[in-house]
Amino acid sequence: MAAVVNLIIEKGTDFEESFDVTNPDGTVVPLTGFSAVSKIKKYPESSTSTSFSVGITSETGKIAISIANTVTAALSPGRYYYDVIIISPESKKTKIVEGMALVTSSPSNQWVIK
Questions:
Q1: Which of 21, 29, 67, 78 has the fewest Cβ atoms within 10 angstroms?
Q2: Could you give the CA distance from residue 69 to residue 57 in angstroms, rounded to a whole number?
Q3: Would the pTM count as exceeding 0.90?
Q4: To which CATH superfamily is domain 3-104 assigned?
Q5: Contact (Cβ atoms closer than 8 angstroms) between residue 25 and residue 106
Q6: Residue 60, exposed/middle/buried by CB under 10 A (0-12, 13-18, 19+)?
Q7: Model confidence over 47-79: pLDDT tens digits?
């Protein structure tokens, strides 16, 4: 079963999130030879999607997904579905993360502007 992690993506900004892939006992899953794909869709069954860039750090079991600001600028504000699927060297596909992604129309400033 995939882990559920909800995301907030601010329209027109660079977005990145990372996930640690571990066994039930907490040990790192070595991802040597694995690849991964991740897409965001308006609905899980939608045939239209936008792909995240995906990076894997094999030794630490870390997967990072990202979307450039030029791509998030083209997303309409609202709720979306996304998932991350890893592909083993033997071509076995496993969904490891899924959830809702809320695309907001304006960035939530982390700084106080006076």
A1: 78
A2: 23
A3: no
A4: Immunoglobulins (2.60.40.10)
A5: no
A6: middle
A7: 999 999 999 998 889 999 999 999 999 999 999
Q: Are 36 and 53 in contact (CB under 8 A)?
A: no
Tokens at 86, concatenated: 């890893």
Those residues whose C-beta lies under 8 Å from the C-beta of residue 41, and which sit 6 or more positions away, are 48, 49, 50, 80, 81, 82
Cα separation, 84 vs 31, in Å, equals 14
What dihedral do alpha carbons 96, 43, 68, 78 form, nearest 10°?
A: -120
Q: Which two tokens stand for residue 58?
A: 């094999």
